[in-house]
Each structure stands twice: as structure tokens, then as C-alpha cells.
Design brief:
Blueprint (H helix, E strand, L loop, with lengths): L4 H14 L10 H8 L3 H14 L2 E4 L3 E4 L4 H25 L2 H20 L2 H17 L4 H17 E3 L5 H16 L2 H16 L2 E3 L5 H5 L16
Antiparallel strand pairs: 1-2, 3-4
Length: about 230
């Protein structure tokens, strides 16, 4: 059975973000194929996608390597997010479906509950799911993919000092209320304030290998076995 390249791409990207593949390190097709339990074909396709996303670069005499973004490039990503997330929320107010609203409201309820109890690990995951769902609700595949890529890149380059707390989840709730009412201007305004506040909690990772100090190293992915999360 041929393993989809997008599944391999997700596994490699997750490991890059987690610091399993350090910045500047080589990514050889043979070793990656062995690590993820696939052939070299989906690995080759995945590396091309990751290069387009900015996670991988191709160097003469070295081949594919994990990219080493500059501080300016990292700063630009946060600025792009400040501009695009409010736009996404505004579009979501115009184009969301009832299914999107159901998921968003459920995430807000869970987030507010976990925030009151101080469950920080749950809050990080719930915050990511909330923003991914809001991006999907904007009704623009191009904007959704751009916002998703931004979140992945920012998670790779920055450490968040504190997870979304009670105040942040109250803002999430206000965003969903505006989206549900179809109030695009209010959704944009609340999201702009929320994104700016969240951005202030980001701290640039200190350098190559810092990912290992900031995150728990992930186990190896096996994308061609039953029960794989991919």
C-alpha cells in the first residue's frame, strides 16, 4: 500500500517543530524512509512540500536540510499573523457553517473549563484546535492554508510563555459570538486585540537545538501501521 505523501509530510513537519530534526541538520531520503516506515517516493514528495513551506532548504553538496530562519524572518511571521488572523475571523463571520459553529462553541466550553482548573497541557491543544477551526471557517482555502502554515512556523520558532488562560478564552468566546451573529467587523476587531495580546507572550527560541530544551522529544512516527495518528 502506498503511503500518502501528505501523511509523511505531517510526520516530518511535526518532528521539525518538536526539535527532533534540528535546524541545519541533513534530511536524507533513505534515513527518513526508514524512520517513518515508508518508501523514498513519499519522502521525496514531502520534502518538496516542506521546502515550499519554509521548513526545508536544499543546499549544494548537502541536499535537503532543516531550514535555519533568521530573527527577522521569525518577526515577519508574527506580523503576518497580526494582519491575517483578524481577516480570517471577519471572513468566518460571513461564511461559517453550523458545523463550524458547533465545533467552535464546544472548544470554547472546554477551554473555559480547563482554564478555570488550570490544565495548561489541555489548553495548548485546545487553543490550537480553536484557531485551526476558525481558519477553516473563513471559507477560503488559500487563507486557511496560509494561517495554518503560519501557526506551524510560529510554533517552531517561538516558545509561548504561558498557555491561553481565562481571559484568552473569554476572548475566544466573544469571537465566536460575533462570528455566529455574522458581525464581521466585531469579529475582526476582537481577533485583532486577541492576536496582539497572544503575540506578546511569544519568546524567540534561542538557537539551534533549543527545541529539545523546550519540548519533550517525540517518539518515532510509523505512518504505515494500524492505529497511526496520521
Amino acid at each position: 500500500m502506498r503511503i500518502p505523501a501528505h501523511s509523511v509530510c505531517t510526520a516530518i513537519r511535526d518532528d521539525i517543530v518538536a526539535g527532533v530534526h534540528e535546524r541545519g541538520s541533513r534530511l536524507t531520503e533513505e534515513l527518513l524512509a526508514r524512520r517513518y516506515g515508508v518508501s523514498r517516493v513519499p519522502v521525496r514528495e514531502a520534502l518538496r512540500t516542506l521546502e515550499a513551506e519554509g521548513f526545508v532548504v536544499t543546499r549544494r553538496h548537502a541536499g535537503a536540510c532543516v531550514a535555519e530562519p533568521t530573527e527577522q524572518e521569525a518577526s515577519d511571521l508574527l506580523e503576518m499573523r497580526l494582519l491575517l488572523e483578524p481577516l480570517g475571523a471577519s471572513r468566518a463571520a460571513q461564511r461559517r457553517t453550523e458545523a463550524h459553529l458547533k465545533v467552535l462553541r464546544g472548544l470554547v466550553r472546554l477551554g473555559q473549563e480547563r482554564a478555570r482548573r488550570g490544565h495548561s497541557d489541555d489548553l495548548r491543544s485546545l487553543d490550537g484546535w480553536f484557531h485551526e477551526t476558525l481558519a477553516q471557517a473563513c471559507g477560503s482555502p488559500a487563507l486557511t492554508s496560509t494561517l495554518t502554515r503560519l501557526r506551524h512556523m510560529i510554533a517552531w520558532m517561538y516558545v509561548v510563555e504561558a498557555p491561553a488562560g481565562v481571559e484568552s478564552w473569554a476572548e475566544h468566546g466573544a469571537i465566536v459570538d460575533a462570528v455566529a451573529r455574522g458581525d464581521s467587523e466585531r469579529a475582526r476587531a476582537i481577533t485583532a486585540v486577541h492576536t496582539e495580546r497572544a503575540t506578546a507572550a511569544h519568546r524567540l527560541r534561542s538557537g539551534p537545538g533549543a527545541e529539545r530544551a523546550e519540548r519533550v522529544r517525540k517518539p518515532q512516527h510509523a505512518v504505515n501501521t494500524p492505529g497511526s495518528r496520521l
